[in-house]
Amino acid sequence: MPYFKTIDGCSLYYEVIGEGTGKPVITFVNGTLQTTVYWKLAAKALAGNFRLLVYDTRGQGESDLGHAPLSLTLHAADLKGLLDELGIYQSAVVGISHGARVALALADQNPDVITRMVLCSISTRATFRAKMIVRSWHEILQRHSLDAMVWAALPHVFGRAYLKANERQLERIVKTIVRRNKTEGLRAHIEALQHYPPLGATLKALPFLTLVITGEDDPLVTREGAEEVAQACGGRHLELKGIGHSLSAEAPRQFIDVVADFLSGT
C-alpha cells in the first residue's frame, strides 16, 4: 500500500485513481469517522475525466497518528507535502465536514495549489446542539468503546431517510466504521477539532470558484451558516433536499453529478 512520509516522520496512506497524467486532478479530504473508502464510488465515476487523490489524514484509517499535536495548520501542511511528493502542482479539492476545514486551511496557506473547491457539510454557525454532539462523542470514547461512539454518531452523521432505508444494514455499517478507525487516533482527532478557531473568523474571499453543499436534514450545520461560508468565499451554496451530513454516501449519484458539473465548468 502507498504511504507518504511527512517531514516529522508520520506515515499517511493515499491512493491515486485514474490513469493519465494530463487529466485535471481532484483531491478528496475525509471527514470525521471517514477513510478513503468513503470516496471510492465518486472517484470511480469521475476517473474517466479526472485523476483522483484520496488519502487518510493523521489518525484516520490507515494513516499514523504521529507525535505532533493535531491542528488545521498541520493537516494542511501534510496535504501540501503529499501533493508535492506526487508532483501535483494544481488540484481541485473536495472536502467534507472536517475535511472542508482542512481544505480551507490549505487555501489559506497555499491558494495557488487549488483550481476549484467544493466544501461539503460545513457552516459558520456551529449550533450549541452540534457542539454538544461532538462533545458527547469525545466523552463516549473516553469512557466506553469505539463502537458505542459510532452508534451514538449514526443519527447525526446520516439523514433520517437514509437511516430508515438502511435500517437492516446499520449493524454492518457500524462494524465497518469501527474496523476502519482506531480509538487513539479518533480520540485525538475529536479532541483537536473542539479547539479549532471559529470558522467565521477565518473565512475570506478565495481566488477560485467555490461551491458549498449541505444537506437539508443535517443537525450539525445550518443553512444560514452554509450560505455565510459561500458568501465569504465568493462562491455559491447548494442544499440537497432530504439528505443529512454524509452527502456522498446518502445521495451518491446526485453528489457525483453536482461535483462533476461544477469541476468541469458547466
Quick rundown:
The protein has 266 residues and is of the alpha/beta class.
Helix content: 40-55%
The average pLDDT is 95
Number of helices: 12
Radius of gyration: 17 Å
Low-confidence stretches: none
| Topology, number of strands | 8
Task: Indicate the multimeric state.
Answer: single chain
Strand content: 15-25%
Instruction: Describe the main β-sheet briefly.
Output: 8 strands, mixed
Give the helices and strands as they follow along the chain: EEEHEHEHEHHHHHHEHEHH
Task: Tell me the distance between the termini.
Answer: 35 Å
Classification by helices and strands: alpha/beta
Strand order of the largest sheet: 1-2-4-3-5-6-7-8
General form: globular
Give a structural overview:
With 266 residues, this protein is an alpha/beta fold. The protein has 12 helices and 8 strands. An 8-stranded mixed beta sheet has the order 1-2-4-3-5-6-7-8, sandwiched between helices. Strand 3, helix 1 and strand 4 form a beta-alpha-beta unit. Helix 2 crosses helix 3. It is globular, with a radius of gyration of 17 Å. The mean pLDDT is 95.
